Amino acid sequence: MANGGHTMASMNQNTPNGRMRSRIAVLVIMLCGVCFAAVAVRLFYMQVVRNQFYITKARQYQTKDSIVAPSRGTIYDRNMNKLAESAATERISVNPNQAYTKARQDRTGLNETQQREKVARMLAETLGLNYETVLQQVSDTTKQSKDIKSRVDQDTCNTIREWIEENESSYGITFVPDTRRYYINGAFASQVLGMVDGDGVGTYGVEAAYNAELSGKPGRLVRAENAQNGEMPFDYDQYIDAEDGNSIVLTIDENIQSILENHLETALADNPYARDGVEGVVMNPNTGEVYAMASMPDYDANEPYTLTGIYYEAEKKAIEGLMEKYQPEVPFEINDEYYIYGRKAGLVYVPNEDMELPDQTEPVYDEKGKVIGRRQRTLIEAIRKCRSDELIRMWTNHTISSAQEPGSTFKLMTVSSALESGSIATTTPFYCTGERTVTGETIHCWKRTGHGAEDTMQAVMNSCNPAMIEIGFKTGANTFYEYMKAYGLFEKTGIDLIGESAGVFYSGGLDEFKSSDTNLPVATFGQRFNVTTIQMATMISAIVNGGELVTPYIVKEVLNPDGSVKEETKPVIKRQVISEQTSAFMREALYQTVYNGTATNAYVAGYNVGGKTATSEIPRQKDDLEDRYNAGIVAVAPIEDPQLLVYIVVKDIPKSYDHGGGKVAAPIAARVVADAMPYLGIEPNYSSEESARAEHAVPNLVGMTEAEAERELAALGMEYRVRGKVESETVTDQIPAAGTRLQGKSRIILYMGGEQSGEEVIVPNLTGLTPAECRDTLQARGLYLKRMGIPNKNTSAGTRPLRQYPESGTSVPEGTVITVEFINTTNIGDQ
Predict the structure, then answer these.
(1) Which of 409, 630, 761, 781 sits CB 3.0–4.6 Å from 614 for a disulfide?
(2) Has residue 117 been placed in a domain?
(3) What is the mean pLDDT of the chain?
(4) CA–CA distance, 535 with 388 (Å, rounded to integer)
(5) Are residues 113 and 211 in the same domain?
(6) Distance between CA atoms of 631 and 661, rounded to whole angstroms?
(7) 109 & 11 share domain
(8) Per the confidence metrics, is the pTM higher than 0.85?
(9) Domain boundary residue among 191, 222, 249?
């Protein structure tokens, strides 16, 4: 049997079928071997050769990497008052793969759609977002994480956390540390501080100029997740701390900035037809430190996309002009939701918004930002550009970026350069007939009847154009041009802010300047070229500080996060432009211009203020019906040792309204000086001529005899009268109360028995009255006059109140002091 079995097996192997099965078996074994070898090679390649690559890939798929925003540095004023800071907030994100889970469905009975709708609805309502947008985000399962909203405050985040606790599930919601920028006082110094964009990057002002210092370095939050997208422990989970930004200490003084802004706001209200608003700079002329800088209207840096004031009006006018030009037959509807806030809902109806405008194009850029062509702009794009143009204008710091003709403040350059170069002397005589003819062109003085004979000092005091023309001719175009260059007028001042303009002069330089016989004459009084306010303030600082051209600066210190000083700014003197001798003469000329000349409305009692006004004509726009002007003033105090320089410009005023620098701008500068000097610790020093302006505290006279009260008041230069019956040997009451500050020769009311009734009186309207009439009118009502403005000795028939406080019609207690600011409305020149 054994042999038989063996024989049968051999026969099976030798049959064709047997041989085929054997070959198949061998082939299968070989294929398995090849596959095994391939797998082994692949495993070797993945686990040994590309080990690190696949570990990294695995980590990328198994981890969620979030950026942790650093805290942006704080911005302080020079006295360490906070102006801008970053507050701790959180970024809300959702993992769409955790917004729905099967386990949660088993527990709550909510299916996938219901779970996603539930979390989307809660987030949209809590965060003030569009529900459909949030639902789309929480349903995008191709992503591990979707950011829902950044910079969410803590109270809102806690509301979401409470919802999570109530629902016993996170629904994939995560919280990542974040920060939000807050500007402490809203619109305060907004064009100096600037703002940050949606990514927290500085875009204007100090925020942009010092973005690298303020930003810090972001950290990272890395979390490991399992196959079900749940968090799990992992040996490379980590939290890398963000490095907070450095802080900035400005040269800006919060109090002086407030003084400037308050008076600029008043000026804007007083000059509603000033189409380009009003701007001002206050600086230390010796060091270049900027104490205050503002353009009005400004904006709230916490709400930087809200258009107001002249910017809103200009945007609306531009858009209405577009619609009238391109769609005159079709009505449109755009409301303030768009005009003010830029919300899409405000574009209620814009016909043919995709229509291409035949005469408007815009550049096309490649990926690197290079212009590769132009394309036609559509109507809706043109509308949006109208808005963006006004936003940019609102955000711009016009004191450093917007250039205009300086007008007569530039006469200080003309005279100082002529004196320094020896072209004229302080005693050089001039004669003004009211005009000067140059190569057939007649150039007028503001005083058409002429100033007659005058010397150099009087030429400045009178702001005389013909005298300036003569000085320019004596100096010569070459020397005049070189001094303009020496004063830094052909370059940026170098102030540490982004967006400074270098002004606009003759592009062809000296040759073009000399190409017309009238270029030099009109340049002597500040025409046919444009400079910025900061350029003028810097130039005049050199004229009054002894001749040194300083670099203005806005940042005093950079602080490390621990508060230590990383960097301190030191004053930089670029060069000596004029001598101390020339500078001393110019200071005296400025003082005389205020005390006896065309800038008398810049006078401040108790302080020796120097000043020079300016009125410059500006080009008409196509729809203007009359000429328009800028009104300017520079004021320096105290002139014997300058500590404060104030430069003010009220811009784009129609000719039919008050538009001269002496009448419009000078009182603004006077108010700033009057408020800032005491704050700086510089007490008033009244001359004998100003004794009537000196203020004294009314003593407590109650309990004194009449004779004692009389002696006490006489020592202060005050008078008195007794009201009512004399029923007591001593004073029983008085008006005004003890401690009230009154100017000299005020009359005190005494009661010798009984007391005042306590009734209130109505403040009268003093408009149009002379100073004496104002005093008598107030005195008749038991009120007191505090006189501000022009010197008493310069009072003329044209001296009238500019404003009063409290305003007329106000109910006040008897004895209240009414402050009245007087100006001369005649014989101050239009310069």
Answers:
(1) 409
(2) yes
(3) 89
(4) 27
(5) yes
(6) 4
(7) no
(8) no
(9) 249
